[in-house]
Amino acid sequence: MDSSLLILYASTSGNTEYVVSILADLLRDNLVNTTVNIIRCEEASVKDLGKADRIILASGTWDIGGAEGQLNPHLDSFLKKDCKNVDLKQKPVAIVSLGDTRYYFTSRASEHLRKFIMSHNGTVLGQPLTIINEPQGQEERINKWGEKLIKLISES
Q1: What is the distance between the alpha carbons of residues 11 and 120, in angstroms, rounded to a whole number?
Q2: Backbone angles phi, psi at 134, to 5 degrees
Q3: Measured CA angle at 152 (ends 149, 154), to 5 deg
Q4: Which segments of 1-156 does DSSP mark as H helices, in order?
Q5: Each residue of 71-92: pLDDT tens digit?
Q6: Nearest to 5, CA basis, from 74, 51, 46
Q7: Continuous segment of H or E residues that includes residue 97
Q8: What are phi and psi of 139, to 5 degrees?
Q9: Non-local CB neighbours of 50 within 8 Å, separated by 6+ positions
Q10: pTM over 0.70, yes/no
């Protein structure tokens, strides 16, 4: 049976996009019966969440208006406005969070994503992938997390 996995992300500097592109390649190579789709949140609709069997939500952590530890503003708006009434129907959702050590709340995006998943009837899939500072040079870490995710998906 074919299944689908949606990678929904927000990336302004390109770092989150870099991470999810590595993950997408790994997942496509190893999950032969799964269609992997990547969509920027600015181009996504609520229907995209409904069509996917599994989801990865990915965001950097932002300092918005002096409030550290926030989601990327594009993903924050999409989840809070467009998806405020979405029911994830127990779908497994994995989390990818990026952060920067210049800030106290280095990678708090994962907390916001976890709250969204839980409050919308989803199931958190595995531990979050947390990337601190530049993702370039952390490909091995990204791939190891992706391999764990593949195992979780294969066992479910």
Answers
A1: 23
A2: -65, 135
A3: 105
A4: 15-30, 46-51, 73-77, 109-119, 139-155
A5: 889 999 999 999 999 999 999 9
A6: 51
A7: strand 92-99
A8: -60, -35
A9: 86
A10: yes
29-60 pLDDT per residue, tens:
999 899 999 999 999 999 999 999 999 999 99
For 97-139, the pLDDT digits (tens) are 998 776 655 678 899 999 999 999 999 999 999 998 888 998 9
Residue 139 token pair: 């490909």
Domains of the chain and any CATH numbers: 3-155 (3.40.50.360)
CB atoms within 10 A of CB 89: 11
Contacts of 86 (CB under 8 A, 6+ apart): 46, 49, 50, 120
Q: In this structure, which amino acid lies at residue 30? A: N
Can you tell me the distance from the alpha carbon of 142 to that of 129, in angstroms, rounded to the nearest whole number? Answer: 7
